[in-house]
Amino acid sequence: MSKTKYIFVTGGVTSSLGKGIVSASLGKLLQARGYKVTIQKFDPYINIDPGTMNPYEHGECYVTDDGAETDLDLGHYERFLNTPTSQANNLTTGQIYYNVIKKEREGAYLGKTVQVIPHITDEIKNNFFALGETGKFDIVITEIGGCVGDIESLPFIEAVRQARWDLGDYNSIVIHLTLVPYLKSAGELKTKPTQHSVKQLSEAGVQPNILVCRAEYPIPMDIRKKIALFCNVNVNSVIQSIDADTIYDVPLLMKKEKLDEIVLEKLQLSTEPEPNLESWKGFLGKLKNPTTEVQIGLVGKYVELPDAYKSIVEALIHAGAVNECRVEVKWVHAEKYEGDTLKKQLDEVDAVLVAPGFGERGVEGKIEASCIARRTLKPFFGICLGLQCAVIGFAREVLKLKDAHSAEMNPNTTNPVIDIMEDQKNLTQMGGTMRLGSYNCKIKKNSLANEVYGKLEISERHRHRYEFNNQYLEQFEKAGMIASGINPESGLAEIMEIKNHPHFIGSQFHPELKSTVENPHPLFVSFVKAAIEYKAKK
After folding, report:
1. What percent of the chain has pLDDT over 70?
2. Which of 147, 325, 384, 389 is catalytic?
3. How many other C-beta atoms can be found within 10 angstroms of the C-beta atom of residue 179?
4. pTM of whole model > 0.90?
C-alpha cells in the first residue's frame, strides 16, 4: 500500500476555471491540518517549458530556486503553501517526449517499438510518483492542464487511469473541476455541460470522486442531486465554487464546503485536527479592511494581459495587507505613453514600478518613467529590465552619456551601460540558457537595501541575460547611484539605488517570485510603505 496519497485534479467544459487556485486552496487546507503537501502541474503543450513563450500566450513564466522556468500556477502553489517548488513540480508534454526519445536513442527500450502506451504513459506516471517517492510528502496533488476531451490531454488522462489502478483503493482520488453556467433568458443553472464533461472523462476510464462546480450563483440542493445522479458521485461530493472577491478567499470557501474533509475521508486519512487558519484569516482581515489606499503605476508592455505580471500584482497585494493599505494598480503601457502623455499618467500615481520584460518594444517609455520618478522624488522600484532602464536613464541624464543604452537594444552604442554576460555570448539556444534560479547577494551596510532586508546576505531568483556593466560603476557611484547589492562570486551588481532620493531602488533579480501570504517580500513591503508616505506628504 502506498504511503503517499495522490490527488489528481482535472478540468472540463472550458479553460480558466481555476484548477490552480482550487488545487492550491485544497493544499493549504490539508497543510493547515498538519499534512505535508506538495502540488505539481502537468501541462499538455509541446514546448519544453514556458521559458520561450510570449507572455501573451501563457502569462508570466515563473522561476523556481533550482532555475526551472515553469507555469504561473506554481506561483499560486508557493504563495498559498509558503514552500518552494522545483523542476519536479512542472512537466510538459514536450519534456515527457524529450525524455522518452532520449531513452530510445540511448537504447533503453532494447529495440522495442516506442509507443504512447506504455512508454509515454509510463514516463508520465514516473513523474506523477517522483515527488511522493522522496518520502517528504503525505499527499501529492497533481493538476492536469488543459480540458478533458482535448487531444493533447489524452495521454495524461490515460496515465491517471493507470496510476489509479497501480495505487489501489483509497490511495488516490480524482477531483474534476467543471462549469455550471447560468442562462439569463431561462433564469436557471444548467447541468448539461458538467454531465458531458464527466461523460468524456468516464469514457477515458476515469471516474471522478469529487466534482467542484464553478458557478456565478449558489447551486441549490436539487441541482446538486441532479448532478450527483447523472455523474455517478455522492451528493456531498458535489462542491460549489462561487466567484470570490479575492483568490485568497477560496481556501475558506472550500473549507465551508468541507472539501478537505471529504478528500481525507475518501483517502482514509484522519480528519483531526481542524485546519489552523488563524494567520490566513489575519491576512484576509487586513486585506479587506485597509486604513489607507495608494495607486501604483505599473509600467510594462504586456499590460493588456495582467497575467503577464501575476507575481508582481500578488506581491503588491501581500505588501498592501502588511501595511493595511489597499494597492490599486494603474496599468501604464510603456509603448503607448511617452513624453507629456507618460508624465500625465504618472502624475496621478503615488509610486512607479517599472516591470521586467525582453526586447526593444516599449523600452524608451520605461526609461522615461524611471527618469520621471527620479526627478519628481516619487518612490521607484525597477525589476530586472526595470532596473536596467533606470540605469540607462541615469547615465543619459546625470552622467551625460547621451547614447547610453543596453547592448540588447542597441548593439552599436558607444556606452553599453547594460551588457551581455560573458557566459551568454556564444549561446545559440534560447530555452533554459539564461541566468536562472537562486543566486546569493551581499548587501552594503547602511544602504536602503540593508534597511529593507535587515540583513547583509540574501538569496534571490534570477531570469536574465544582460547585466549592469561594471566598467561604469565608479562613474555611477560618484554621481550618487550605488550598487548596494553585489553577487559575491561574479562581482555583478544585483541591487542599484540612488542615495539622495526618498526611495529609488532596482533589483536585477525577481523579488516577486518569493513573496507569499505568510512572507510578503520586504522590497515590496518597503515600496508600498514609501508610496503611503509620499501620498501623505502630497
Report:
1. 97
2. 384
3. 18
4. yes
